[in-house]
Every structure is written in C-alpha cells, then in structure tokens.
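Researcher: I'd like a candidate sequence for this fold, 189 residues long. If you have to choose between options at a position, lean toward the conservative one.
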C-alpha cells in the first residue's frame, strides 16, 4: 500500500483474500478504512466440497493430475443462474495455470494452522467489515460468515440468494452493498 501511496483505503477482497486482509487489519490497526469481504473461509472446520478435500487431505497426491482449467471449470459448473462471460472465465483459468494452482492449494492447506491463529485475533479488529456471502455457496457455507460476524466488533452481514461467486452472480446487488458501505455505511457500525 505504501508503494502505491494508499492511505487507509477501502478494500474489497472476496474469495481467498479475507483471511489475509483480516490478518493485516489485526497486525496493523488503522491500515484500512473499511473491508468488504466474504466467500472466503475463516474457519477451516466449516468448509465444503473440493475446498474441504484440498484443505484437509493428508496430501495433495489425489490432485496431482488436476489442471488449473479443470479446477476452475469444476468450481463454476454448479452455477445455475449465471454463466461467466468467456473472457472472465478465461481470466480465472489463466490465473490458475501451471504453478499458480499449486501455490493457491498450498496457501489454503495452511488454513488448519493459520485460521485458528486468526480466530484469536478477530475480536481486536476494529476496522468496519461488510460481509457479503452467497446463501448457496457450495464451498464456504453461510455459517462460516455468521461465525465471523459474531466475533468481529464492527461488522454487517448480508446474505444474497446465489452461490460462491457473489461478486459475479449478483454483481448489481453486491456492488450496491459495497458502494453503500464504502460511501459511509461503515460509520453506522
């Protein structure tokens, strides 16, 4: 943030990013003005499907032949009401090519060690947090966000009728909630 000259920015960070932002907020109070987060696990015991399989597998051996494209297509195939535009889907696929898929897997496989440490720090995080999650998320259930909401001192939880990719599937509602929060709604907490 210093490199880009950002001073207390509002941050929108869904999916894999919430734990990282919450650790940053705990380690550097006042670094963010607000956080809009969600669809990311903050309790490794409350995850489902392939996320649970990867995080809690004894090894990555069962996934050795999985490609980034297969992983991405598998995560989006259950979406009923929304189809990714081809260029967006390709961007997701490109972001998981080669070693990038394995780097992401190693990151989330540390959840059983990192997330309990984060859980101990959550009550001290004072940055206002807007949590936006999908009611039908097949990977990170609403209960994960509800638990986070209970322990964060300043948070608001909105549950939208969609799956994991809330920012894509319900972009208009997601954008409206994020915009309201960033434009001052955070001060209501």
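Model: Candidate sequence:
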């Amino acid at each position: 943030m210093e490199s880009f000259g950002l001073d207390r920015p509002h941050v929108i960070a869904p999916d894999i990013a919430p734990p990282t932002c919450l650790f940053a907020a705990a380690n550097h109070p006042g670094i963010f003005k607000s956080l809009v987060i969600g669809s990311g696990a903050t309790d490794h015991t409350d995850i489902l499907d392939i996320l649970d399989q990867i995080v809690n597998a004894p090894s990555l051996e069962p996934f050795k032949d999985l490609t980034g494209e297969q992983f991405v297509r598998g995560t989006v195939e259950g979406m009923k009401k929304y189809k990714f535009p081809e260029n967006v889907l390709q961007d997701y696929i490109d972001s998981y090519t080669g070693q990038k898929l394995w780097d992401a897997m190693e990151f989330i496989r540390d959840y059983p060690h990192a997330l309990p440490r984060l859980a101990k720090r959550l009550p001290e995080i004072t940055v206002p947090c807007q949590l936006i999650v999908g009611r039908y998320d097949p990977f990170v259930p609403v209960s994960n966000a509800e638990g986070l909401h209970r322990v964060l001192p300043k948070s608001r939880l909105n549950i939208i009728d969609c799956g994991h990719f809330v920012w894509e599937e319900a972009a208009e509602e997601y954008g409206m909630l994020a915009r309201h929060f960033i434009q001052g709604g955070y001060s209501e907490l």
